[in-house]
Amino acid sequence: MMEFTYHMPTKVVFGKGAVRNAAAIFKETGSKAIIVTGRHSSKINGSLADVVSALDEAGVAHVLFDEVEENPGVKTVQKAAEMAREAYADFVIGIGGGSPMDFAKGVAVLIENSECTYMDLIEGPPLSAAPVIAVATTSGTGSEVTHYAIFTDYEEDTKKNYVHRIFPRYALCDPSYTQFLSSEVTVNTAVDALSHLVEGYMATAANPMSDMHARNGFEIFEKCKRALLEGEFSYEDRENLMLCSTIAGMVISQAGTSLPHGMGYPLTYFKGIAHGRANGLVMREYLEFCSDKSKLRGMLKLLGMSSLAELGEFLDKLLGLEKNVNAEDIARYSSDMIKNVAKLRNHPCPVSEEDIAGIYAKSLLR
Fold this sequence. Notes:
It contains 17 helices and eight strands. By secondary structure, the chain is α/β, with parallel strands linked by helices.
């Protein structure tokens, strides 16, 4: 018997000019925005200027918080929320990759709930939030169409999921901004999108709708393989990568992620390995561990690959090998990962600490 729920409240506006032409969207959303972004990239790629231009056209005031760090800390979110409250901002525009878009969701909760602090982002009951508009400038995170956000608690040396379910009201996706990304960033974010497709497709929580999107995403990713290997990207490649990323975000908004994401977090936090690359480094061995070989074969076919070994070779060419992890690191990361109940629950068969250590070792001690 088939039973599932599909909830996707984000309206996606995709294509060149999606932000420049967003004045009506901004005007209907609120009277004053806080823009949250990093220090440099949104200024370089033109996305910040386009947002400000569209806000001015709409007659919507704004304040700017451009201190979003990579792997944003919970206390930085509170700092931005305090600015927003003082300015009486009533909606949030997040410009960038996963960090600013996640950050925007946290700020939105704290604007709507003025009595709350950053601790309420990572514990306690789900809360409402001010409207969020996500402007994606990378092609990997999918945060523009998910209710997820990850924040870093630097006092506890760990990343934490926030407990709320805040989807952006709008996702504005203009592939033009990604033309400013380096080949390395483009590859790492593309592999992040691939990991969303893979993990969502193989997850316990997968459903017919999420699987339909995942299969579409695999077909689009297949078109980008040569460009990713060669490191040269046409505008069509940029379009396909952003579309793949957004579709992959839709997949995990329904089905979630599982082992590679959980195992990748300490590689990013402790070793400085880019998030998408961290996921990709363990992907082959994770798939070897997956029990549903029929679904795996179907996925590989859509990716234009004949075997899991071929996928592994493709990822090795893209990502290289990682030599900065040792057996002691693996033991510590595995001990932490076995406590990540949510990720373990989303893998369709039992997982032991030894299984996790084995995936790490086969992936990283080569």
